[in-house]
TrEMBL record:
CTP binds at S13, D146, I147, E148, K186, T187, K188, P189, T190, Q191, K222. The keyword ATP-binding applies. It comes from Wenxinia saemankumensis. GO terms for cellular component: cytoophidium; cytosol. ATP binds at S14, L15, G16, K17, G18, L19, D71, L240. This is CTP synthase. CTPSs have evolved a hybrid strategy for distinguishing between UTP and CTP. The overlapping regions of the product feedback inhibitory and substrate sites recognize a common feature in both compounds, the triphosphate moiety. To differentiate isosteric substrate and product pyrimidine rings, an additional pocket far from the expected kinase/ligase catalytic site, specifically recognizes the cytosine and ribose portions of the product inhibitor.
Length: 547
């Protein structure tokens, strides 16, 4: 049975709980343990699938098709353990399960209450897969004291109480603000935050204190005394230049030692940190630099494309270069020629997206990349835009477009080269969706297999002919246009095993122009960069040598 580490936050939000959890997971792995990481989110949305990426950041899709919080992306990037649907839950999902059971009569007419019905539902969730790993790390979103979070805190209190002693610990992250005027780090907010935990029956075993300034020993002593935590278990967390420093930095601060100590594991197995030393070496000692333009719509908020930014960094690490990215608003190209805006970049990436706004500009960016022979990676919508560009400007289908935009506008304007997918094959069965299904869950989601054409660029990039990648989309390139497009030079180099769904397109006479219907960025890791991002950055490096 797994040991449980609950991770909570206090004082302010955005302290980096997700990163601390992910780094701790990586450190436990480095000591030979198996881990699984989970996120419990207090918000009432049933899943993050329909939440605005402006507000909530990217939706991270798992192999088994769940739309989850971007923190699961961090977990995967740091531990390499593929996240699953059962690694993420929200209050909304918990309540929805409880209400469903109530409607079904499962509770036999009992009065339904937060304690025990909601807390039992949370505890059932916590127990899933407990047999499979040595450590289960469960991060509670939000901050202690948030009204929505209370059932989660109560559930972990009960859970820890019910398990044998020493099998669950609580790690709490706080902030030590620095007052420049008095030149002091203040510990009072941390004390209050721990009091808040204590008032609901929880006591931290390990305190992680974020601070911009070095934490003097006497302050650690004070925190230990007032918060009833051992001094060695007060772990400092300083600002980092890169998130990938976190495992080594937390190791230096003694986090993994404190955690194993709190469990009474002694002597602790020695860690092997060579993977992270190599990651950091590649990151800190680049031998060159390339510039990549990301042409998209949600350019205001980088979190909306978190995994793409990370995957590009990994691609840079694989090639020992620094990748500088600029986020370029595609709407600009609807008014202006893209050339002066894109000329200085070594490669262009058009990411996924929804809705018509900004798409004409993305099509222009794809055209620019094709004509100027600049490396192009089109992801999901970015692939669809490349296909529309090919149809319009190379295959003579001048009115080519996507049904998505006609649906949105309520008028028929385009020849639907990209059309709404209503049924498809998953494994051995057919999945069917109606246009007017609920907004959540109408997409082709999760891992699907694709067959790559022998001798194609992608087959070379992947080094194999069969791949599995994660999807999140409603629309598909229509194979009825395949012949026309292939005659124009756009090769359909990756297809679903039944040959019905185009997964990858590439221009045969271009140094590196690839569009993929899936999201490769979700599977890239710093210690195992995704082949497409490795190849894309390599193509950018080669292009940079030409200019
Ligand atoms: N909007 C497009 C679709 O649903 C693309 C989705 C995406 O880029 N993730 O097919």
């Amino acid at each position: 049975m797994a040991r449980y580490i609950f991770i909570t936050g206090g004082v302010v939000s955005s302290l980096g709980k997700g990163l601390a959890s992910a780094a701790l997971g990586a450190l436990l792995q480095a000591r030979g343990y198996t881990v699984r990481l989970r996120k419990l989110d207090p918000y009432l949305n049933v899943d993050p699938g329909t939440m605005s990426p402006f507000e909530h950041g990217e939706v991270f899709v798992t192999d088994d098709g769940a739309e989850t919080d971007l923190d699961l992306g961090h977990y995967e990037r740091f531990t390499g353990v593929a996240a699953r649907a059962t690694d993420s839950v929200s209050s909304g999902r918990i309540y929805s399960n409880v209400l469903e059971k109530e409607r079904r009569g499962d509770y036999l007419g009992k009065t339904i209450q937060v304690i025990p019905h909601v807390t039992n539902e949370i505890k059932d969730f916590l127990r899933i897969g407990a047999e499979e790993v040595d450590f289960m790390l469960c991060e509670i979103g939000g901050t202690v004291g948030d009204i929505e979070g209370l059932p989660f805190f109560e559930a972990i209190r009960q859970f820890s109480h019910e398990r044998p002693k020493g099998e669950c610990i609580l790690m709490h992250l706080t902030l030590l603000p620095y007052l420049a005027a008095s030149g002091e780090l203040k510990t009072k907010p941390t004390q209050h935050s721990v009091k808040e935990l204590q008032s609901i029956g929880l006591a931290p075993d390990v305190l992680v204190c974020r601070s911009e300034q070095p934490i003097p020993d006497r302050e650690r002593e004070k925190i230990a005394l007032f918060c009833n935590v051992r001094q060695e278990h007060v772990v400092p967390a300083y600002d980092l230049k890169s998130i990938y420093e976190a495992p080594l930095a937390y190791h230096r601060s003694g986090l993994d030692q404190a955690v194993l100590d709190a469990f009474g594991i002694s002597p602790a197995p020695k860690p092997n940190l060579s993977v992270w030393e190599d990651v950091l070496d590649r990151l800190e000692n680049p031998e060159g630099e390339v510039r990549v333009a990301i042409v998209g719509k949600y350019t205001q908020l980088e979190d909306a494309y978190k995994s793409i930014a990370e995957a590009l960094t990994h691609g840079g690490m694989a090639n020992r270069v620094r990748v500088r990215t600029d986020w370029v608003d595609s709407e600009l190209f609807e008014r202006e020629d893209p050339a002066p805006h894109l000329e200085s970049y070594h490669a262009i990436l058009v990411p996924g997206g929804f809705g018509e706004r900004g798409t004409e500009g993305k099509i222009k960016a794809a055209q620019f990349a094709r004509e100027r022979k600049i490396p192009y990676l089109g992801i999901c919508l970015g692939m669809q835009m490349a296909v529309i560009e090919a149809a319009r400007n190379a295959a003579g289908l001048e009115t080519a477009g996507s049904e998505e935009f006609d649906h949105e506008a309520g008028v028929r304007r385009f020849e639907p080269v990209v059309y709404h997918l209503k049924e498809w094959i998953q494994g051995n069965h057919v999945v069917a969706r109606k246009v007017d299904d609920d907004k959540g869950g109408t997409m082709r989601l999760g891992a699907y297999t694709a067959d790559l054409r022998e001798g194609s660029k992608v087959a070379e990039v992947y080094g194999t002919n069969v791949i599995e990648e994660r999807h999140r989309h409603r629309y598909e390139v229509d194979t009825r246009y395949r012949e026309k497009l292939e005659n124009a030079g756009l090769c359909f180099s990756g297809m679903s095993p039944d040959g019905r769904l185009p997964e990858i397109v590439e221009w045969a006479d271009h140094p590196w122009f690839i569009g993929v219907q899936f999201h490769p960025e979700l599977k890239s890791k710093p210690f195992a960069p995704h082949p497409l991002f490795d190849g894309f950055v390599r193509a950018a490096v080669e292009n940079s040598r030409l200019v």
